[in-house]
Structure of TRAP transporter small permease protein:
Amino acid sequence: MAQRDNIAQEAIPDAVAERRRPLPQAGRLGWLIDRVSLLFAIGILLAMATLVLEVVMRYFFNAPTTWAHETSTFLSAITFVFGGLLCVCRNSHIRVVLLYDLITGRARQILDAVISLTCAVSTGFFAWAAWRMVKKAVFRPSGDLYLETSGSAWNSPAPAFVKIFLFFVLIIMCGQFLTLAFNYLRLARGHGKTGG
């Protein structure tokens, strides 16, 4: 009994470590997304440091900034948007597995491909909707370039940049889902190793 408990305890860190790596089926795109994720982790630290600076400036020096809140919000927003893409390549997103866990082998690989294709299509629609937001945030009705601003005292163009970033992340996410679908289908057909 004790030996079985030790094996189970050793398996938990392995499972956690496995979630921190991209799926082999995610290919080179998944590998790249995983590597870039460190920049966004640093972004969260910068957002926290910005808020700490604001507290110090406001309550110790009575000199609040006009940019700290918007900067920390912007850094947090792009990090959360990128987090969705990271979850796709690591297969760590939330899913309901009631029926999924009953399927194994080739049938599961085919199901994974179907799920990935469905997600690619829906992500494509989200990207199209995001493009409509980007057009309104970046161009005036006359067609002139103008970045949407926050309307605050600092009046930064952060809202436009978040919308642009969301659009590009959705395009990359669609590509990641297509890569996953392709590689799951290759596995189902018995072609072995995935890579693309």
